[in-house]
Amino acid sequence: MSMRIDTKTSPLVIIAFDAGDLDFIQHWVQEGYLSTLESLRRRGCWAKLAGREQLSEWGTWTSLLSGISRGQHGFYYFRQLVPGTYDLRLFGARDTGVQPFWARLRGGGKQVAIIDPPESELVPGLSGLQLTDWATRYLPQREVRAAAEPAELLREAQRIFGPQITVHDFSPHKSLDEDREVYHRLLERVEKKGTLCRSLLAKDRFDLVVVGFYESHDTAHRF
Strand, coil or helix: what is 55? Predict the structure, then answer.
């Protein structure tokens, strides 16, 4: 299978807001709080996905970015039964053996900028830059370290972004002050992520840009 991305006029840009609540987003768009999203909807088109692939948020991004159904890649939840037993094991995107569609751009001369893609591992050998698991969801069940290609990109991300910001989204019985502190930490992470992305994207002209934001997921759980 071959893939062609025509970027004579502009790159293909994918911005992922992980687990954003559709009802809230629509309400805030109508009230004028999310003017950028409202502009995109007004000038383009939008749709709500449905079907059995929406069984769980886990594995949905894997299906969307690979074109391979959940029935094939088998990613249903972060903790899954070991076939033939009653034992549970941790499971993630790397365990599926499935790669995102931009893996097919390897060797094709296209420049990519992949920054924290959802449910996607680093794809070695692509032209451009990749930074994974830098400012994503914190999952105490799985220790996932940030990775980059080229490797020195990790140091640059540290310089631009500063220390990584960890948010514990499942923290019941916290005080209002503690929740308010987390709220401001999430906003800070969004702002720093934007600064990081703008800095990295200014390095070159990219044919494909994929950026993931996870604060909507953390916020929905925490609040």
Answer: helix
